[in-house]
Amino acid sequence: MRCRAVMSIIFTVLMSVAMLFLAAACTQSPAPAEVELAATVSALSTANAELVTQVADLSAAAGLPTPTPAPVQETEPPVSAAPAGAEAGTPTPVTVVQPRGDGPLPSLAASVSLAPAGETIFDLRVDSAANRIYASDTAGQLHVLDATTYQPVALLPFGGRLELDPQHKRLYAYLPYLYADEEPAIHVIDTETLSLVGDLPGQALAIDVERNRLFVGEPLTFSTPDDAPGVRIIDGATLETIDEIDQPGSPVYNPERNELLIIAYTVYTADADTGQITGDLFPELEEQAGGIKWCNSCVWADEAWYLPEQGLVGIQLSAHCAGKGCGVREAPRFYAAATMEPLPTTQAPAIQANCGSDVMAVGAIDGRIYQNQIFDRYVVYTNFRVYDASGAPVTWRDGLSTTFINPTTRQGYRFDGMVFDLETLEPIGQWPNACIFAYDPESGLLYGRRENNLFVIAERGAAAELPVPVDQPPPESWVIGVHASPDFAADGTLLAEIDEGEIYRSTDSGTSWVRLRGGLPEGGDSLRLHVYFSPAYATDPTLYATGYRSEYGGEGVWRSMDGGDTWEPLWDTLTHLRGEQLYFAPDFAANPTLVLEAKFNDLANGVSGRSFQQSTDGGLSWTVVVTGGYYAGDHDVPLPPVSELLPGSDQTALPVRIAGFDDAIQYTLDGANWQTATVTIETTDWLFALVPAPQYPADPTIYAVAHHGIWRTTDGGATWAQWNEPQYADADNLTKAIYSATVTPVLNDGSHRLVLGTGEGRVLLLDPDAMAWEPLAAPAAQAQPDAGPTLPTPTPLPLTEAEPLTGEPPAGLFRPEGSFAAMWENTARIQQDLGWAKSAGPDSYPGAFQRFDGGVMVWVQEGSRVFVIFNDGTWQRFTDTWQEGEPERDPAIAVPAGKLQPIRGFGKLWRQVPSVREQLGWALAKEEAVGVQEQIFERGSMIRIGGLAYTLVGTGEEGKWY
User: Fold this and answer.
1) Distances (CA, A) of 221 to 246, 433, 487, 885
2) 356-384 pLDDT, tens per residue?
3) Closest to 141 in 3D by CA, of 126, 128, 123, 125
4) Structure pTM?
5) Measuring CA to CA, which residue among 762, 711, 759, 768 is closest to residue 739?
């Protein structure tokens, strides 16, 4: 595809969402499978280019992925190449009409298979006067259906975008994006005869119904030539040109002022009668970047709309940031159509997600205005905000968004099929998830698509039925969480969390399993659900669950009071929905207090971190009591221990801890000094859990668990024994691996069981006394205590006598504060190597991290930088040049068993720089989204990822580290 066509596509995609999709969560994070778009922009056909744009538009409104399509029938409707007209070939689509119930939730009224297999519906218009539906597809066909029976009326050879003028009985079909050798054409179709009236050259159209005029133009891009034709004024009856406005671009007609808006980087106004340009709404756009248009991060106008029901004109100005996204997505600007007076942002309607070109907006409902707010810069965050009619904030939710707001039913529809009540913002059921084209409030019907199917959805009809548990074993996937009932000795109940977000329950000690549903969130490998037994489970068979979908969606808190068969949402006043962990009061039966730890990103105030939300009534209501985990200008704001909210919940401090790169165990004999235990972890493995016996410290047994090994100590860490189990000992096998561990409560005979979740979907219940343990050598008698956990430095810098820096720093430099201050102040070597800090405290950025055979890769969002930190004590810095649409991986590369090929930005660098690939080797685990703290010094920098801190010496593109 040549330059102009490609750039047109790119501009539209960037305007919508840099998650095309992203497949994922951040630029380095693996994306949910249901949102991966494998085709690159350069490989898209004209029709598929528009499809991608439409899918991105839907995602943009929700900040979320396209819903997983439902299974489609195998029947493929034949394609007619017959000339236009009612006598053209009229294949019979596969149509399934569903009876409508009387329930409160949306229900599927009809499913019509229209497009050929592998294609999809492109655009749609409903002609209520003629009782017809017009639907174009990406195969270049126009389907005409009866709007009552959904039976075919005609099949015409016209694809693309549709515009309908029912008053003059005209339908217009055209392609907004073309190959370089294609000629633009707007096909004019008579809706009575279904015959072609004529063609107009153009790729953009606006209609003046009252005067039967057409305004025809072409989208303006950076490659539009200076002598490109301007917007033409056409007589709608004769298709003859009346006049030409001396400005190329895309026209939008405002009938309330008989005025034309022309989208051409800025937005020009023109007199629709005289054709004279009358103004420039945004002259400041021309002044960006020294007057250089189309620059990276520049703002320009993407589209505009006239909204007759609201009497408004909307204009979308967007920053464009070369694939990575620009941060907080700017909301459209709205103006009173009659006066062009601006409307305050908080009083503006919300533009509905739309798969097609017919723009829908929703304004105030019962005195409230609902808006999605989206952050899109590699990582996508979503906020759902509620304002009153004056624009004053009412409430908000982190991790919530809508694809469609139904003003009639007062319901919001979410990308994953959830329906929530607009008044309470609580889930109330599911809807037939589809990408919406149109909504007819009179009939109560919505029109959407799933793959090649047209979905007709009744806004009411389905009952809020809860699916029952399903008898089935866990799938062959990672079991990332295992839990034993507090009354396990009596009820034998186990719970297992699966990597794809599913929860399984066994009531016979793991012999058989059921998948829990009953209202729980479902679907997609981006979903993470964590489940918990109520501490009083023996008397109240209550379970709780919380979870999230990557960074963009939250699942709040759910409760089951029947052991997991049915679930209810506990979302009332729950602000931060991306829950990660639940904590319970020790005396929960008498004091039903619990605390949710969640991630949050308050886009309106620019604060992101973690929070504790507390409920004192078992989850019925919540209060945000403390936030932390962020940097506040000159200091870190930590999240305090949860014990401050739940007195008595302190766990007994263990005399052992995981250290280094999670590859060493340290123990203390005096509670102050730490020594390294004689436990050897494979270089490709790491420890993830320390599990004490259920009667600890009366029973001093502690288990240290890695993915490919388990160790046991009974003397506070001084001596250890290793579980000798060959099938889980291969550190290169990610399937034969352990991913979760816990212990049961004490059994009737005084013993307990070790519960393990594996990478092959198994839950193992092992008797520790029957396991084969191999004692390890005791530590040397004169082992020197360590001051604390240290990072490995395979090839450290030569140690020399270093003098600390004294006095005050020179002007413009600082003595570091915050998370790196202690390391700098206490280490003269760091002071001499790095010098003074260039800022008082560190900066915090979103990032990503991945382990390799020979080191690690760290991506820092700010500046799109990738640090490659090698095990030999050297580091290099590169610019991340990967963009959405580029190949994520090289399928021709054969990956050894148990290893991974890095993808996306890490993968491109790894493939294109042989020295990096040779020195790093294969990836050992999937990349993960992390927060990165960075502080710049005179001669280097310090960065921190979680508990790992690196001192990078060198101010250029490479250096030494320790």
Assistant:
1) 16, 35, 67, 20
2) 999 999 999 999 999 999 998 888 999 99
3) 123
4) 0.74
5) 759
